[in-house]
């Protein structure tokens, strides 16, 4: 597997440091397995007509990169990262189903103009570069929307400080800081990307 060759801890450090090449490398290494999981779970032809596995995969990676950029995840092993990404993919796919099959939007009532063979689609190289640039923009926007206090916490997390060390520096409970910061990431993430 390609991810076996990656130094996950180093890639995450680079992503937190704002290096888009690291985000792109991680994205390309895990994209096939994430999309396979999403395609497996997108069993409804009606939902597949309106939602592409690429859309959900990008949402998975955007959520992951936003949280990594904010210092939320501590991952060093490729199998742990894959498990996390697949779990996010399952949740996002379930969210898509709920949204698309809701009474007001039930896609089962929509008649397709044409069918698309999702299995044969391949992301173009220029699309991959655009995805990496989009992720960088999202991380920058996340930082812009953080309060001064939240930004200070994010900066300390990116520098590798643990929650107890941050709590000591800021004179607050580590658990309270962690919870408040994660709520802020959730709040901002929902404004930046669908299915966050």
Automatic annotation (TrEMBL):
PANTHER family recorded: RNA POLYMERASE ECF-TYPE SIGMA FACTO, RNA POLYMERASE SIGMA FACTOR HI_1459-RELATED
Keyword 4Fe-4S set for record: no
Show the InterPro entries listed in the entry.
Answer: HTH_Sigma70_ECF-like, RNA_pol_sigma-70-like, RNA_pol_sigma-70_dom, RNA_pol_sigma_r2, RNA_pol_sigma_r3/r4-like, WH-like_DNA-bd_sf
What's one GO BP annotation on this UniProt entry?
A: DNA-templated transcription initiation
Name used for this protein in its record: RNA polymerase sigma-70 ECF-like HTH domain-containing protein
Q: Which SUPFAM superfamilies match?
A: Sigma2 domain of RNA polymerase sigma factors (SSF88946), Sigma3 and sigma4 domains of RNA polymerase sigma factors (SSF88659)
In its UniProt entry, the species of origin is given as Blastopirellula marina DSM 3645
Q: Which UniProt keywords apply?
A: Coiled coil, DNA-binding, Sigma factor, Transcription, Transcription regulation
Per the record, the domain of life is Bacteria
Q: Report whether Transcription shows up as a keyword of the record.
A: yes
